[in-house]
Design brief:
Number of helices of chain B: 7
CATH topology of chain A: Ferritin
Radius of gyration of chain A: 17 Å
Radius of gyration of chain B: 17 Å
Largest interface: A-B, 30 and 34 residues
Number of strands of chain A: 0
Shape of chain B: globular
CATH class of chain B: Mainly Alpha
CATH topology of chain B: Cytochrome Bc1 Complex, Chain D, domain 2
Oligomer: heterodimer
Helix content of chain A: 55-70%
Largest sheet of chain B: none
CATH superfamily of chain A: Ferritin, core subunit, four-helix bundle
Number of domains of chain B: 1
Shape of chain A: globular
Strand content of chain A: under 5%
Number of helices of chain A: 8
Largest sheet of chain A: none
CATH architecture of chain B: Orthogonal Bundle
Number of strands of chain B: 0
Strand content of chain B: under 5%
Distance between the termini of chain B: 51 Å
Structural class of chain A: mainly alpha
Helix content of chain B: 40-55%
Order of helices and strands of chain A: HHHHHHHH
Distance between the termini of chain A: 24 Å
CATH class of chain A: Mainly Alpha
Structural class of chain B: mainly alpha
Chain lengths: 193, 126
């Protein structure tokens, strides 16, 4: 399994340090500004809308994180390619969640600007590729746990999609963890609980 | 039943009955820091408002009191400050405590909740 992961993401490539520092100003220029949107609670009529909107906000942040990383100059091209693929997964999640919120009559929460995401994720501290991967790993692990922890609070119509999204996040965790040389967990039930 | 046996039984009963409180008081802040990253870190940080509000100093604070975060109406209705009991209820089932909240993530294991709360109560998160 680990060999498969390492084939997908060459560890040497992932861990080499480009020696560059990610600057917030550079990031802002690279990624531009996002769209301001309604805050939670202002337009959402139901509990599921609120919860799904929180998931949309999480996905917005994930998409921005990969965009910022891809434009940082800290990643090797093959790693950028993987990050862009992962970003596509999060965009798919966002789109599904937006559809669900609209079907419930709610207003999907809009993305913040990438400059705001860069600030709240403190990307200015990232100095090399491994730093970027560690940030991504933390966000992905958190997202896998978040979807699993969310399921009991969601209406049953959304249990399956939340479970599928948790599965995607767990896949990202496995790839990123393998690339960073994290040991394979010895115990099962490694997410949620 | 002898008097000593009755006293012993009462003591045991008290011990069992107070388990949740003991779990809270004995929360492991170090384990809680790791759990915080893993369970809460998708949406929260100590020092930045993200999907959810920043958490530094949340223990003992009034709900919905970070001025630059847009809380749900449900959160703004909560009145009790965040402490051991309120945080435990919140992490057990947030939508039951504040129907309409945007926070739906549950932490089902009592010891996990106690450890996360111990971390939020610790100097590292104050």
């Amino acid at each position: 399994m680990k060999a498969l992961l390492l084939r997908a993401v060459p560890r040497r490539a992932l861990l080499s340090d480009s020696g560059k520092v990610l600057s917030l100003a550079g990031l802002t220029a690279l990624v531009g500004a996002g769209v301001a949107g309604p805050a939670f609670g202002q337009a959402a009529p139901g509990q599921d809308v609120q919860l799904l909107n929180a998931a949309i906000a999480l996905e917005h942040e994930g998409i921005a994180a990969y965009t910022i990383a891809a434009g940082s100059g800290l990643l090797k091209p093959e790693v950028v390619k993987i990050g862009v693929t992962f970003r596509g997964h999060h965009e798919r999640h966002r789109d599904e969640l937006v559809k669900a919120v609209k079907a419930l009559g709610g207003q999907p929460v809009a993305a913040k600007s990438d400059k705001e995401y860069a600030t709240q994720l403190n990307v200015a501290k990232l100095k090399n590729q491994a730093d970027v991967l560690r940030l991504a790993l933390g966000l992905e692990r958190g997202a896998a746990n978040a979807y699993l922890g969310l399921i009991p609070s969601l209406g049953t119509n959304y249990h399956q999609i939340a479970g599928r999204m948790a599965g995607d996040e767990a896949f990202h965790v496995a790839v990123l963890g393998g690339a960073l040389g994290e040991p394979i967990p010895t115990q099962g039930l490694m997410f949620g609980g | 039943m002898s008097r000593s046996l009755m006293v012993a039984g009462a003591l045991l009963s008290l011990m069992w009955g107070s388990q949740p409180v003991l779990a809270q008081e004995s929360g492991d802040a170090e384990r809680g820091a790791t759990l915080y990253q893993q369970r809460c870190g998708a949406c929260h940080s100590l020092d930045a408002n993200r999907v959810g509000p920043k958490h530094r100093g949340v223990y003992g604070r009034q709900p919905a009191s970070i001025p630059d975060f847009h809380y749900s109406t449900a959160l703004r209705k909560l009145k009790e400050p965040w402490g051991d009991e309120t945080l435990d209820r919140w992490l057990t089932n947030p939508t039951a405590m504040a129907p309409g909240t945007a926070m739906g993530i549950r932490v089902p294991q009592a010891q996990d909740r106690a450890d996360i709360i111990a971390y939020l109560r610790s100097p590292a998160a104050r």
